[in-house]
Amino acid sequence: MAQQLLMPKATAVWLVDNTALSFDQIAQFCKLHPLEVKAIADGEASQGIKGLDPISTGQLSREEIARGEANINHKLKLSDPKVRVPESKRKGPRYTPVSKRQDRPNAILWLVRNHPELKDAQISRLVGTTKSTIEQIRERTHWNAANLTPMDPVTLGLCSQIDLDFEVEKAAKGRPLPTAAELGATLQPTQETERLGFSYDREEEKEIDADAVFAKLKSLKSTRTDEDEDDQY
């Protein structure tokens, strides 16, 4: 894998401020356009960017900068890294140690039961198995199905918790929203909720007779007056 320059724009800011290199040389080294380097020199494209010294990071030597300043046609070269970073492994089926391969069916059963949203390809990546094995465990047709016990693949050491969380989150993003039946909702239709459960029969409202009401009040008042007079005697 070819070595790449760290923070090219910040490195370009430092080279513009601290060297006599041309815009073309800095642009070629930092993989930028010469006009972008010119904008950095004019202060139009470097606001808020702190320069990064490529000498302190070991990506460029003072001798290389001096050669570039002496020869405008010289192309700067990255210094050889002091530490070699190994290339990342290609993506493929996860290797499972021989001592743990017998635990894979138990881990698959655990994933199928606890994370049904995971696809077969995701389970295969997590525990390093085949789709046919996953299907057999799903359908309970595995040769050892009667003796399988669900076991967490993280506890078994078949995958990391970070890998498991990543696959679960990835599967959850593509999963459709749960229906009301899945959520156990018991909402009733509007027609049924409008039935209040009791009957309210509007009886024929009797018209209020004002004369009868006042007559009754007068009789109550007269009765009250007679009782007060009797109390005085």
UniProtKB/TrEMBL annotation:
Instruction: Tell me what this protein is called.
Output: DUF1013 domain-containing protein
What organism does this protein naturally occur in? Answer: Metarhizobium album
Q: Which Pfam families match?
A: TrcR
Under the heading InterPro entries, the entry gives:
TrcR (IPR010421)
